[in-house]
Amino acid sequence: MTDLLGLAAIVPASAGACCTVGAWRPGRAVDVVAAVVMVAAMVDGAFGPRVLPGVLWFVVLALLAVVVAAVHRVQSASGASGASGASGASGASGSDGRPGSAPSIRVASAHGRFGRLHAALGLLVMGALGVGMAHDPGMTGMAGVGMHGHGGAVAVTWQVVLGGLTTGYLLLTAHMVRDGIRRRTRALPVVETLAMGIAVAVMAAAMV
Question: How many degrees, rounded to 5, is the angle at CA 141 between CA 136 and CA 144?
Answer without folding.
Answer: 130
